[in-house]
Design a protein that fits this description.
Elements lengths: L2 H33 L2 H15 L2 H19 L3 H34 L9 H4 L2 H27 L3
Helix pairs in contact: 1-3, 1-6, 3-4, 4-6
Length: about 160
């Protein structure tokens, strides 16, 4: 087994982990957060964010680097193109995270769970966060599928 094959396996694993974590938010965490009253919502986000934040940027960044390396080194043209597409998709996941989801997370982290803002009903960011989380989850799942297809090109 060549180094490229090993890197492809690791890239698929990274893409799968990222997609799986994000899919779990769509399936379970977001519905929970939407159902919670203000106080519990803020407390839950403040509990979860420090656990997800170290993992997701590292996983996505590592996977992006592997996909770029594979796009540059794979011997098969179709595999190179697929890994390049997977890299672009993961880069899109990261862009959505940084520009859309992270600002909402930072806002919620600054909230006091004991003091609901007067305009909370108008400023509640959960629907906006849910939409962008769904977008980045779809991108991550497609990146996983594309990287798997790329790896099959080696066979």
């Amino acid at each position: 087994m060549s180094a490229t094959h090993v890197l492809a396996i690791v890239a698929i694993a990274g893409n799968g982990i990222a997609a799986g974590i994000m899919l779990s938010t769509v399936i379970g965490i977001v519905p929970l957060l939407l159902a919670l009253p203000y106080r519990r919502y803020v407390q839950t986000v403040q509990f979860l964010r420090p656990r997800f934040d170290p993992v997701m940027p590292v996983t996505n960044g590592f996977t992006l680097a592997l996909d770029i390396a594979l796009a540059a080194t794979a011997s098969d043209v179709a595999a190179r193109a697929a890994f390049a597409a997977a890299a672009a998709l993961i880069a899109s996941v990261m862009a959505v995270s940084v520009t859309k989801n992270v600002p909402v997370n930072r806002y919620v982290m600054r909230l006091d769970p004991e003091r609901e803002p007067a305009a909370w009903a108008q400023n509640d960011p959960r629907a906006r966060w849910r939409l962008w989380n769904l977008v980045r989850t779809a991108l991550a799942v497609v990146a996983f599928i594309v990287s798997a297809v790329a790896a099959v090109q080696f066979a």
